[in-house]
Amino acid sequence: MGRRMDGSSLNRVGPAEAAARRRRMRALVSLCRERLRRAPGARFGTAAVVAIAFGFGMVLAFVQQDGGAAAALDGMLRSATRWMAWVGGGAIALAAAHDRAAVDRRDGIEALAAVRGARGGALHAARALSAMQMIALVIGVPALVLAVVGAGLSGSMPAGLRVLGVGVGLAVFAGAAGVALGGLAAVSGRVAGARGRLVLVALVLVPWALADLAGNARWSIPGALDTFLFLVTGGMA
């Protein structure tokens, strides 16, 4: 420990302590993600994504066997990812926005985190990161699986590689959707508590409706994400 010129103490964190803090944070994020996964809304979102991916996978196989064009295949992958984002990711975001702090306090998680050395807003940050990670994974993993299936059903190596490239774009979109929806859900839950879900819905839908009335839906979270999805998968926004 050193001292500043004004006499106040200056804490210096060594490499060992910094590594220990990172380990504690990773463990805290994993715990929050597992608890979020068990929430009813998150379970519904995960099940919905599985059903959507299975349905689109069946249609994808039919389109490929029928000699569907590349544009049709790309459109199918985008549509599947969009549905998984808003049905699955949206349900998980609503679960994350429902006053997770109160649930953690009730179940003793805050006390446990304090005993393990988590300081200040570490638990709030862990909740936000866990929501972002879970939403990104729930969207991205099945989207990549669908892209791999589409590539495997393609009639040639160039076509398969092109579909895999689209899959990479879908994964990038999943990460962006996870950050946007998970971050907004965490903030809504922290600020509004038990009314966090209502705040989240308002923050997403009200600007979307106003932007749509103004003739430019891109100035909203759904519109911006939809535009981003087209851009990262080589489509025309």
TrEMBL record:
Q: Which UniProt keywords apply?
A: Membrane, Transmembrane, Transmembrane helix
Where does the sequence pass through the membrane? 44-63, 83-103, 134-153, 159-186, 198-221
Please indicate if the UniProt record lists Transmembrane helix as a keyword.
yes
Query: Record keywords: Transmembrane included?
Result: yes
Any idea what this protein is called?
Uncharacterized protein
Q: What is the originating organism of this protein?
A: Chondromyces apiculatus DSM 436
